[in-house]
Design goal:
Elements (H helix, E strand, L loop, with lengths): L1 E2 L1 H8 L3 H9 L6 E3 L2 E5 H10 L1 H10 L24 E3 L5 E3 L7
Length: 103
């Protein structure tokens, strides 16, 4: 779900200045839609969890005070696909060769 900086500020109990600083420091990914920043809710949530201070503010002033347990796993970097396991059939369609072990 995409949210604006002001929505993120209200939802997470942080100032807009703090969120803008995170964008400037490339700590938060964003999209520009009609010259407005749009942030992914889960990205902001994970970003707040990385800092004890931000997480505490979120728990006391943001949505965290209403949610007992967030079931959002921490994102892992996706592993690159081994190009050797991608095969092409006779009709030109690609498929993953499940016979080969993936790492």
């Amino acid at each position: 779900m995409k949210i604006s900086i002001s929505e993120a500020s209200k939802l997470f109990g942080l100032s807009t200045k703090t969120i803008r600083l995170a964008i400037k420091n490339k700590e938060l990914p964003y999209l520009l839609v009609r010259d407005r920043y749009r942030l992914e809710f889960t990205d902001v949530l994970l970003w707040t969890r990385k800092s004890v201070r931000k997480n505490n503010i979120f728990q006391r002033q943001g949505l965290g005070q209403y949610a007992t347990d967030w079931q959002i796993p921490i994102k892992e970097q996706s592993k690159p696909v081994d190009k050797k396991i991608i095969q092409k059939d006779d009709s030109g369609n690609f498929y993953i060769d499940k016979k080969r072990p993936t790492q």
